[in-house]
Amino acid sequence: MGLVGYFLYNMKYGNAISLYQEYNKKITANDIDTTGFIREHSPVFGPEDAPVVIFAFEDFECPYCRDSFLTIKNIKQKYGSALKIVFKHTPIVSTHPNALLAHAAAACAHDQGKFWDYYDLLYTSQKLDKESLLGYAELLSINNSKFQQCLGSTIHLETIEADLSDAARINLQGTPTYIVNGALIEGTLSENEWSKLILQKLEKN
Fold first, then answer.
1. In terms of domain of life, where is this protein from (predicted)?
2. Which CA distances in Å does 28 have to 33, 101, 172, 184, 187?
3. For residue 167, what are the domain limits?
């Protein structure tokens, strides 16, 4: 990003130093190795060379993930090309019985280039029964026959298992969990806390 870019961000979003000085309580590690975490199947928002990379470990049936949804959406809009967000499928099936099918449906939507639109519908509606999952695909004009065939198969179990193995690598304790340029964030953040963290990472680039 460089020094000029950093000061431009300061002008637009506020002074990075004053914003992040008080922020550190939710960062539980700063050196997480994410080598290999961007997989061929991974849904990615943002440019390849974005200075801030966020891995988002989420469960579509998790109420805390739902609470974070609008905050993440606002952060995406606010910081735009400064962010690359990599979604990681992390259904906690022991407590969320509908999550696995919802994640499989989202992966099927990703096959047709509609992951982030489908992601929005899953969080805004929170109806995760099969009929609803098929209805979301119809709303997004996803090819119905291909989607149903995909959802009725086990094709994306390996996709989800790969992300769960990455979650195990970081000893994930719950959702949502984020890794931001190596910093492990467990739990939800306010929009202001996200700004502090992002500006801190931009300052280091």
1. Bacteria
2. 14, 31, 11, 6, 11
3. 28-185
